[in-house]
Write a structure and sequence with these properties.
Helix content is about 50%, strand content about 15%. By secondary structure, it is of the alpha+beta class. The two termini are about 30 Å apart.
Length: about 375
C-alpha cells in the first residue's frame, strides 16, 4: 500500500503551540521554494510495509453475549494463512462492548470506537465486564471460514450491539518501528470528525455490498480496511501525551519526525549526522540529543539497524545478489555490508538466506 505524502507543517506554526525554540527548517524552506511535498515518517514506513487488510466478521449481538478470541496466529490460519503477522481490530457501530485481556485489563467500547490488538493478543469480548457465563459457540468459526459477511445475529435478547471485525497483515520486521511503540490493546473513536464518519459509513456500505455478492465490493473493502487502520494509527499518535517517548511519539516532533522521514525515504543516501542536521535545520548535538530522547539511540545507529532490517527482508524474499542489496541500502562495499550484517544477525548474509530457505522448506513440508 503506497501512501502519498502531505506537506510538512511549517515549524514556525508549531512555535505558537509551545515550542518557542523551533524555527522553520532548512528542508521545509527548500520544499516550499522548490514546490516539493515533504513526506511524513509514518507514511514512509507504511509505504514499505505492504499492508493488506480485510473485514472478516460482522455481528449483531443482544445482551448478554460474549466470546473469546484466540491469538491472531490462530485466526490467521483461517483468514490469511500466509501472513507473517496479523493485527486484529473491532469497530463498534451501535451499542457497546467490553474487551478483557488475559492480564485483567478492561477496555470499554462505545459507538464509533475502534479497538486494535497490534500484537494479536487473545482477548474476551462481551456485553459487559465480567460477562463470562457459558455462552454458545454462535458458529463464528464456520462463518469466518466461509467468508460470509452477513451479520451473525445471536445473544440473550437484551440491548443490541453491532460491530465489524477486521485484520491487517504486515511484515513484522519492517513494521517493527510502529508495532514496538504500540501497547497490547488501544482504542480510538472515529466519530470525532467528518473524515472518520465518512470512513465508517463507507465500510458499512461495502460490508453490505460484499454480503450481497456485488462484484468488486471485497476489493474496495480491503482498501478501506487499510485506510481505517492507518487513520486509527494517526489518531492514536495525536492522542499521545507530551512526555511520551518512542518511535510514534518521535514522529510528532518536528525535528525527529523530519529526520525519520528523510532516513526512511532516502535510505541509500550517504547520510552523516552533519548533513542530516543541516536538512532538518538544527545543530548536530541538538539533533542527537533530541533523537536519542525519543528512540534511545542516535540517528546513525538507527539508520544502520533499519538498513540491515531491509537487507534481511530482501535476502528472505528475493533472489537478488548480496552486492546489489548492499548498494541499495547505502553500502558501497560488500565487505563492509557483510561485517555489519554479521554483527546484527550473528551470521553473514549468505548463511542467513540459506538458513531461512531451509527453515521455510521444513515448515512447508510439515
Amino acid at each position: 500500500m503506497r501512501l502519498s505524502g502531505r506537506p510538512c507543517p511549517n515549524v514556525a506554526v508549531l512555535c505558537s503551540n509551545g515550542c518557542p525554540e523551533l524555527i522553520p527548517s532548512l528542508a521545509d524552506r527548500r520544499a516550499l521554494q522548490g514546490g516539493q511535498t515533504a513526506v511524513d515518517a509514518l507514511s514512509e514506513i507504511l509505504s514499505g510495509v505492504k499492508l493488506t487488510g480485510a473485514v472478516f466478521f460482522t455481528a449483531e449481538f443482544s445482551a448478554p453475549w460474549g466470546f473469546s478470541a484466540p491469538a491472531s496466529k490462530v485466526i490467521a490460519a483461517l483468514v490469511a494463512p500466509a501472513a507473517a503477522h496479523l493485527v486484529l481490530y473491532h469497530l463498534v457501530i451501535d451499542g457497546g462492548a467490553c474487551i478483557e485481556m488475559e492480564n485483567g485489563q478492561c477496555v470499554m467500547l462505545g459507538p464509533g470506537d475502534v479497538v486494535i490488538f497490534p500484537h494479536g493478543d487473545p482477548h474476551h469480548m462481551s456485553s459487559g465486564k465480567g460477562t463470562r457465563p457459558p455462552f454458545p459457540n454462535y458458529g463464528i468459526t464456520p462463518k469466518i471460514t466461509a467468508r460470509d459477511l452477513r451479520p451473525l445475529r445471536a445473544g440473550g435478547g437484551g440491548a443490541v450491539s453491532r460491530f465489524v471485525c477486521g485484520y491487517m497483515t504486515c511484515e513484522p520486521h519492517l513494521s517493527r518501528p510502529i508495532l514496538n511503540g504500540l501497547p497490547p490493546v488501544f482504542k480510538v473513536n472515529v466519530r470525532t470528525d467528518a473524515s472518520g464518519h465518512w470512513l465508517e459509513n463507507a465500510i458499512l456500505h461495502l460490508v453490505q455490498e460484499a454480503a450481497s455478492g456485488r462484484i468488486g465490493s471485497e476489493a474496495m473493502l480491503t482498501k478501506l480496511s487499510e485506510a481505517l487502520f492507518v487513520d486509527t494509527l494517526r489518531r492514536y499518535v495525536d492522542s499521545l501525551p507530551e512526555q511520551q517517548i518512542g518511535w510514534l511519539a518521535g514522529v510528532r516532533d518536528p525535528f525527529v519526525g523530519r529526520s525519520l522521514a528523510l532516513l526512511h525515504g532516502r535510505v541509500d543516501h550517504p547520510w552523516t549526522i552533519a548533513n542530516l542536521a543541516d536538512e532538518v535545520g538544527i545543530s548536530r548535538s541538538a539533533l542527537v540529543e533530541r533523537f536519542s530522547r525519543y528512540l534511545s539511540e542516535p540517528p546513525m545507529t538507527y539508520l544502520t539497524r533499519w538498513r540491515l532490517q531491509l537487507a534481511a527482508e530482501s535476502l528472505k524474499k528475493t533472489s537478488r545478489g548480496i552486492a546489489e542489496i548492499a548498494i541499495d541500502i547505502g553500502y558501497q562495499s560488500e565487505a563492509a555490508f557483510n561485517r555489519a550484517f554479521k554483527r546484527e544477525f550473528g551470521q553473514p548474509p549468505g548463511r542467513y538466506r540459506s538458513d531461512y530457505r531451509e527453515s521455510s522448506r521444513a515448515t512447508a513440508l510439515g
